[in-house]
C-alpha cells in the first residue's frame, strides 16, 4: 500500500483518511487527495511513506455531512481491510510486506 493509493481512494470515496505517525502526530489525507500533518512545525524527522508502511489502523471520515439527521459514521479499518478496498494488487503487496 502506497500513499498515492490512499490519496486516490480518498478522492474516489470523498472521505478523509487518518493514521498515526511519529511523535504522536496524525496524517490526514483529505477528500482532495492532499496528505497533511496538522501540528507539524517545519520539516518532519520522518518519511510519510515509511510511517504509512508501519500504520496498522486507519480512520475513514465522511468529507461532507450530506444528511445532518443521519450522518455517516466514522469507520475504523485495519491495514488488511484498507488493502482489500484498494484492490488485489495492493492486497498482494500487503501480504508480501508482512513476510519481511
Tell me the quaternary state.
single chain
How many strands in all?
Answer: 5
- Major beta sheet, specifics? 5 strands, antiparallel
Strand content: 15-25%
Q: What is the overall pLDDT average?
A: 84
Please give the order of strands in the largest beta sheet. 3-2-1-4-5
Poorly predicted regions are 91-100
Residues in helices, as a percent range: 25-40%
List the secondary-structure elements in sequence, H or E: HEEEHEEHH
N-to-C CA distance: 15 Å
Q: Assign an overall shape.
A: globular
Q: How would you describe the overall organization of this protein?
A:
This protein has 100 residues and is α+β, with helices and mostly antiparallel strands. The protein has one domain (3-99). It contains 4 helices and 5 strands. It has helices at residues 3-13, 48-54, 79-86, 88-99; strands at 15-20, 26-29, 35-36, 57-62, 75-78. A 5-stranded antiparallel sheet has the order 3-2-1-4-5. Strand 1 (15-20) and strand 2 form a beta hairpin. Mean pLDDT is 84; it is low at 91-100.
